């Protein structure tokens, strides 16, 4: 019994240190400070290169165009959003999925900042690959923003008639907290490994900034692969507490939605935003039908 209490205390201590509201607020302040500092460092580096104080042979606009400096702080903001995804996982599966959608939208917005630094205004706009990608991403961000709004709207409408928390849901929340705690060191370890790999393979400052164009391959490819495995684990754990058809289908569908997002990292051009938008639309439809099934079909089946 004493051993069990010790484990419980250790569990609560780790959760309070890594995933508490206080930690979240401290992390938010820290990431804002880091983002601001990184923005000025990047901006100063650009002007040092421009005036010949630092000599770097580069053709990347991330080191020649001041607009490119926005790319760096935005990367840190996305990293914090990844932490928020882990933070919200124990609270709500739908909230956790919603964070995935927010992260991929922010990744596209960050890509827009990069493309703005390299964009060429030309009468042949729709014949240039880079400008076409910018157009696709510009439309995709507006569509995704609206779709995420719909996702949370559908989620909140389903919460109005949500049943009271019982022993089974409390136990499921406890297991989701354990999964979230496991994800924290995985997230930190993957971040350190990705940064090490990134710097190790770069031979110069120019190489570092040039590889930032492909930063999704450095970290998010692997991270979203891990999220797919987490989605499967959450589905399996949920089967201990519910056999409701709509919940099983909803959680299974969320796995497919995450896989579509993961697949988007390996595509370019029109297919990239199409896969992401399709993933979010799929998630919204799943959630909507699941809510309707819960409150319109299941009550009649109990009669």
Task: Describe this protein with a few key phrases.
single chain, 303 residues, mainly alpha, 11 helices, 0% strand
Please provide a written account of the structure.
By secondary structure, the protein is mainly α. The chain has one domain. Helix content is 78%, strand content 0%. The protein has helices spanning 2-18, 21-50, 71-88, 93-118, 129-159, 167-200, 205-211, 215-218, 220-238, 245-264, 271-301. Helix 4 packs antiparallel against helix 5 (129-159), helix 4 (93-118) runs antiparallel to helix 11 and helix 6 runs antiparallel to helix 9. The longest helix has 34 residues, at 167-200. The mean pLDDT is 80.
Brief account:
This protein is an all-alpha fold. The chain has helices at 2-18, 21-50, 71-88, 93-118, 129-159, 167-200, 205-211, 215-218, 220-238, 245-264, 271-301.
Architecture blueprint of SSEs:
Layout: H1 2-18, H2 21-50, H3 71-88, H4 93-118, H5 129-159, H6 167-200, H7 205-211, H8 215-218, H9 220-238, H10 245-264, H11 271-301
Helix pairs in contact: 1-6, 2-3, 3-4, 3-6, 4-5, 4-10, 4-11, 5-11, 6-9, 9-10, 10-11
């Amino acid at each position: 019994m004493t051993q069990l209490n010790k484990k419980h205390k250790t569990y609560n201590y780790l959760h309070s240190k890594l995933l508490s509201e206080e930690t979240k607020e401290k992390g938010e302040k820290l990431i804002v400070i880091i983002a601001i500092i990184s923005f000025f460092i990047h901006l100063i580096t650009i002007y040092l290169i421009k005036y010949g104080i630092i000599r770097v042979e580069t053709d990347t606009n991330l080191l020649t165009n001041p607009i490119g400096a926005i790319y760096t702080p935005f990367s840190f903001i996305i990293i914090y959003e990844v932490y928020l995804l882990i933070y919200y996982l124990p609270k709500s599966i739908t909230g956790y999925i919603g964070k995935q959608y927010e992260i991929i939208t922010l990744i596209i917005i960050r890509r827009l900042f990069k493309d703005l630094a390299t964009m060429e205004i030309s009468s042949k706009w729709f014949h240039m690959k880079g400008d076409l990608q910018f157009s696709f991403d510009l439309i995709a961000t507006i569509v995704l923003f609206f779709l995420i709004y719909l996702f949370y709207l559908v989620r909140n409408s389903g919460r109005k008639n949500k049943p009271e928390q019982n022993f089974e849901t409390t136990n499921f929340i406890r297991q989701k907290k354990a999964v979230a705690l496991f994800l924290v060191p995985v997230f930190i370890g993957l971040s350190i490994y990705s940064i090490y790999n990134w710097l190790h393979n770069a031979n110069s400052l120019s190489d570092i900034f040039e590889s930032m164009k492909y930063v999704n391959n450095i970290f998010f490819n692997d991270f979203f692969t891990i999220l797919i495995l987490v989605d499967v684990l959450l589905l399996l754990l949920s089967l201990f507490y519910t056999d409701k058809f709509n919940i099983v289908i909803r959680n299974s569908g969320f796995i497919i939605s995450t896989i579509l997002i993961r697949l988007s990292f390996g595509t370019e051009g029109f297919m990239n935003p199409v896969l992401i938008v399709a993933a979010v639309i799929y998630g919204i439809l799943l959630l909507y039908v699941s809510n309707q099934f819960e409150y319109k079909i299941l009550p009649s089946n109990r009669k």
